[in-house]
From TrEMBL:
<dbReference type="Pfam" id="PF07715">
    <property type="entry name" value="Plug"/>
</dbReference>
<dbReference type="Pfam" id="PF13620">
    <property type="entry name" value="CarboxypepD_reg"/>
</dbReference>
<comment type="similarity">
    <text>Belongs to the TonB-dependent receptor family.</text>
</comment>
<keyword id="KW-0675">Receptor</keyword>
<keyword id="KW-1134">Transmembrane beta strand</keyword>
<keyword id="KW-0813">Transport</keyword>
<keyword id="KW-0472">Membrane</keyword>
<protein>
    <submittedName>
        <fullName>TonB-dependent receptor domain-containing protein</fullName>
    </submittedName>
</protein>
<dbReference type="InterPro" id="IPR041700">
    <property type="entry name" value="OMP_b-brl_3"/>
</dbReference>
<dbReference type="InterPro" id="IPR039426">
    <property type="entry name" value="TonB-dep_rcpt-like"/>
</dbReference>
<keyword id="KW-0732">Signal</keyword>
<feature type="domain" description="TonB-dependent receptor plug">
    <location>
        <begin position="142"/>
        <end position="212"/>
    </location>
</feature>
<dbReference type="Pfam" id="PF14905">
    <property type="entry name" value="OMP_b-brl_3"/>
</dbReference>
<dbReference type="InterPro" id="IPR036942">
    <property type="entry name" value="Beta-barrel_TonB_sf"/>
</dbReference>
<feature type="signal peptide">
    <location>
        <begin position="1"/>
        <end position="18"/>
    </location>
</feature>
<keyword id="KW-0812">Transmembrane</keyword>
<dbReference type="InterPro" id="IPR012910">
    <property type="entry name" value="Plug_dom"/>
</dbReference>
Length: 793
């Protein structure tokens, strides 16, 4: 509650409008009434033509700019359009809306140059970074998890776990809402075809408008959807080695008040991987040394079907209904080879364990949304309802034994059924041309029923019997109710935003076989504040703060072991508590004609930090790994994002994140702490040759990191991509190689008293991909001059 007075004061301050200036607003469009984003609007004094101030239009072509009373003329310019001048602009004692400015294409330029209307791969905005992943050649033919792993500051682990700025506590949304594709199975993003993804938004310090979940922020995956008039769409087909075949389409049809949209993706792949480890343990009563070698193959057939309709009730109100279906079937195989040694290093035993898992998954989502825009610009009301039903059934057969000897047969069943629904309403009310208040309410429910059993075959009795330590059913019930209010305003060069969000959490875990129940409920207030100051026309400084929560992931609460490795058990912890984070960030945005730099300094203070640690080794050499609330962590970091167009045919993007994390805690009287300095970096160079041949090279690096029980070693990779427009610009043929040097291998070391482990693991090997894209009645985002395209082919 110590933040409440500050937030109330900030909300009050924001509602006070500046009286020494007024605003000029409007919208910039082309002759087809399409918005012209990033057009330059310059205000000149009518007396001597001196430049007074200026701005650029947003992605909707709209702009708002402050000006003191006086006589002006406005000059609107943008590449490939004729300059437009609006004379006789008089500001006296009222704000002015100049309406729509229609820009005409520059005919001479159209005849002589290629119009590069392509969106940048990375757009830097004050509250988020937007990655237009469809423009990134290294993403062609990949799945959603691979795409996220290619983005700056984001890492996707071998089991599909996503982390941002070194933390796994990040909220993942699809189209701004929770989805069954991200909430249940960490590997589900690998079943979402990347060709269906339009862009990814990374919000590192979200405001009170967003859910408070996620220590380091929100990753929002935006799927492709269009509203252009007529029928248009995109079709893709791709293949690769190791084996991959797939395809997708995204199409829409709009006429009058109805817009129909649909997308579909199919993906059939086999992903080979390998792993190896060395384990050594010694104590007063037991010791062991062994090596493990693992070969695995994962994959199967996955579908993603999405369809919906927009109904434009009036010019200012729209109803949208959509559904998403995601069925998949996979077969995963692996072989573990254990080599046991004595103290002198002599091989004394060899054991082979095989696994064959059949996995059936299906997610069904239904969404109904309503949006109303009022006569007053910026005043909107939205309401959303979403229902999700998910099924994840796994059946696994295991064999284990020495070569030529008898085999131990085991089988496991792990079935999860999930039901979600949410209702949400948001309202925005402007109280001045640059100020607004926002309010919203949300309620969400999530119920997961998980059945897990492990059985072993008795050869003498010729029947199966359950292993009680690994058999139980769990029901997870989560209900979260939230309400928020925010206000923002701009005073000349200063913009302020403040908000307060309240969330009530009601969570229960129940083990039905052993009749164990763990109910928990708590209410929290989550304030947020944002201040930005425009130092110069292209220089902006931003300060932000938010208080956040990270509730334990469902799979971290499961008390059942992952039995794939019979010597290393990953066990959940139903008694985990949520983490809380105070996040502070300062950002500086510098824009110039052909480049931009966004630099950020951040600090996070976390309590009840959840980490997976090795908790014990039994006399047979079995190691237990369990998540637990350690204590607290302080993380300091500096992040740089740099974009530069060296020439009209060469663009580079790079980013780097340097941070220090200090973790201190204990487990069962054992002091656990770490102090690590590490960094991640990504650099992309994209070149265009012969005006229709694009080449891209991407380098990714993640530095070593100290953990509470050891360290993670450095990892790097290089991706290459090449694409060429064909069929008079309607088609694109692309070839790429992911992980050129086959170096994307996770390596970590655990070194505690009496126990040492050195592990290497590669989820998938180097991959070659070939992709064909065809556009129906739709120009490529890099719009090329029609006459030039005809000359090319």
């Amino acid at each position: 509650m110590k933040f409440l007075p500050a937030i109330v004061f900030l909300l009050y301050t924001l509602t006070v409008s500046a009286q020494d200036s007024f605003t000029i607003s409007g919208k910039v469009t082309d002759e087809q009434q399409q918005p012209v984003p990033f057009a330059s609007i310059a205000i000149h004094a009518a007396t001597d033509s001196t430049l007074v101030t200026g701005t650029v239009s947003d992605d909707k072509g709209e702009f708002v700019i402050n000006a003191k009373p006086g006589n002006y003329f406005i000059k609107v310019t943008f590449l490939s359009y004729q300059e437009t001048i609006l004379p006789n602009i008089v500001i006296s004692q009222a704000n002015m809306n100049i309406g729509t400015v229609v820009m005409k294409a520059e005919a001479s330029m159209l005849k002589e140059v290629v119009i590069q209307g392509e969106k940048a791969q990375m757009e830097l905005q004050l509250d988020k970074r937007v990655f237009n992943v469809s423009q990134d050649l290294s993403n062609v033919g990949l799945n959603a998890a691979d795409i996220l792993g290619n983005l700056p500051s984001i890492n996707v682990d071998v089991d599909g776990t996503v982390s941002l700025r070194g933390s796994e506590n990040v909220r993942i949304l699809i189209d701004g809402r929770p989805s069954g594709l991200t909430s249940r199975d960490p590997d589900a993003l690998r079943k979402l075809q990347g060709n269906m993804v339009e862009r990814v938004e990374v919000i590192t310090n979200p405001s009170s408008r967003y859910d408070a979940a996620g220590e380091v922020g929100i990753i929002n995956i935006i799927l492709k959807k269009d509203q252009q008039k007529g029928i248009n769409g995109t079709f893709t087909a791709n293949g690769g080695h190791p084996y991959l075949l797939g395809g997708s389409y995204s199409i829409n049809f709009r006429r009058n008040k109805v817009n129909l949209f649909s997308s579909y993706g199919i993906d059939d792949r086999r992903t080979p991987g390998f792993g190896s480890s060395f384990q050594r343990y010694s104590s007063s009563d037991t010791s062991f040394i062994y090596e493990q070698k693992n070969d695995r193959s994962r994959g199967g057939l996955a579908h993603n079907i999405m369809a919906g309709v927009d109904y434009f009730v009036t010019d200012k109100s729209t109803i949208t209904a959509s559904f998403l279906l995601n069925p998949s079937f996979g077969v995963n195989k692996s072989t573990n080879e254990y080599l046991d040694y004595d103290e002198s290093g002599t091989l004394i035993k060899k054991v082979v364990r095989t696994e064959r898992e059949e996995e059936d998954e299906e997610t069904i989502e239904g969404t109904l949304s309503y949006k109303k825009d009022y006569e007053r610009k910026g005043r909107t009301f939205t309401a959303d309802f979403k229902w999700i039903k998910g099924v994840d059934d796994e059946a696994t057969d295991y064999t284990e034994g020495e070569p030529g000897g008898p085999l131990t047969l085991q089988r496991a069943v792990n079935n999860a059924n999930e039901t979600n629904w949410l209702v949400q309403a948001d309202y925005i009310h402007p109280f001045s041309p640059t100020g607004k208040v926002e309010a919203g309410i949300k309620t969400a429910s999530r119920i997961i029923r998980n059945e897990y059993s492990l059985e072993q075959f008795d050869g003498e009795a010729e029947n199966w019997f359950a292993l009680p330590a690994f058999t139980n059913n769990m029901i997870y019930t989560e209900r979260i109710h939230a309400v928020y209010m925010m206000a923002s305003n701009t005073f000349n060069k200063v913009s302020l935003q403040g908000g307060l969000r309240g969330e009530y959490s009601d969570i229960t875990t129940e083990l039905t076989v052993t009749n164990e129940e763990n109910p928990r409920s708590y209410f929290n207030l989550f304030p947020s504040a944002n201040l930005s100051y425009k130092l110069k026309e292209n220089n902006t400084l931003q300060l932000s703060y938010s208080y956040r929560i990270s509730r334990p992931d469902f799979r971290d609460l499961l008390p059942f072991s992952d039995f794939r490795d019979s010597r290393v058990f990953f066990i959940g912890n139903p008694n985990l508590k949520p983490e809380y984070t105070h996040a502070y960030e300062a950002g500086y945005l510098l824009d110039w004609e052909n480049g931009s730099i966004l630099s950020s300094v951040y600090y996070r203070h976390r309590t009840d930090v959840i980490q997976r640690i090795v908790t014990g080794v039994d006399s047979t050499g079995r190691t237990r790994v369990i998540p637990t609330n350690l204590a607290e962590e302080n993380a300091y970091g500096v992040e740089m994002n740099f974009s530069l167009s060296i020439h009209d045919w060469w663009r580079i993007n790079s980013s780097a994140n340097f941070y220090r994390a200090i973790t201190e805690g204990s487990y069962e009287d054992e002091l656990l702490k770490s102090d690590t300095y590490t960094w991640t970096a990504r650099a992309t160079s994209r070149m265009t040759f012969f005006k229709n041949l694009d080449f891209q090279a991407t380098f990714n690096y993640r530095g070593p990191r100290i953990t509470t029980q050891g360290k993670n070693l450095a990892i790097y990779s290089v991706d290459l991509g090449l694409s060429r427009d064909i069929l008079k610009g309607k088609g694109t043929l692309a070839a790429s190689v992911r992980d050129l040097f086959n170096s994307r291998i996770r390596k970590n070391i655990v070194d505690t008293e009496g126990y040492y482990s050195n592990t290497r693991f590669q989820w998938q090997s180097r991959q070659f991909l070939l992709t064909f894209t065809y556009r129906l009645n739709q120009m490529k985002e890099k719009e090329r001059d029609r006459e030039h395209s005809e000359e090319e082919l």
